[in-house]
Amino acid sequence: LKLPFVHDDQLTRSMRLRFQSLQQKNTKPQDGEKLLHPNEHVYRVDFIQQHNLRFLHWDIQLERPGKVVVTGTSQHWTPDLTHLMNRQLLEPSGIFWKKPGDKDVECNGADAQEFGERIAELAQIRKVMYFLLTFTDGLEPAQLKVSIVF
GO terms for biological process (predicted)? Predict the structure, then answer.
């Protein structure tokens, strides 16, 4: 079972509006509130099957060199991620990168394995799961395809 990560434009936009609103009003975020940086985007995975999932591997394709950090959130059902708190970010994150001249995407295997297993556990109680993806080294969302395979 291969489930794609889908860029959630609407949630990404609403989180950016929250950040702009705070800046315009010259107010501080709530204590511990996670504000979306320009290189961070919200993605979602819809679990078409919730039970008997066993994590197998990640399917990550990067069109160019760069790095992406995939962080899960503990938000349930229909989240209002505009008030996402740092404590709602799950550990470990999956970190994937591609070096110049390389064809293959690399990762910290132990963290990626643990992260995938954690997602499989959480899928039992969720139909949807949300993720923050952080792009670095000039990588953009359009240059990424990511799926989790059970």
Answer: sensory perception of smell; signal transduction
Contact yes or no for 69/137 (Cβ under 8 A):
no
Per residue in 26-81, pLDDT (tens digit) is 999 999 999 999 999 999 999 999 999 999 999 999 999 999 999 999 877 566 78
Whole-number Å distance between alpha carbons of 36 and 16: 6
CA–CA gap between residue 115 and residue 55 (Å, rounded) = 9
Domains and CATH numbers, the chain: 2-24+36-149 (2.60.120.390)
Q: Is the peptide bond before 29 cis (omega within 30 degrees of 0)?
A: no
Spatial contact of 138 and 91, defined as CB atoms under 8 Å apart: no
Tokens 């099957």 -> residue? 49
Q: Which element (helix H / strand E) includes 100?
A: none
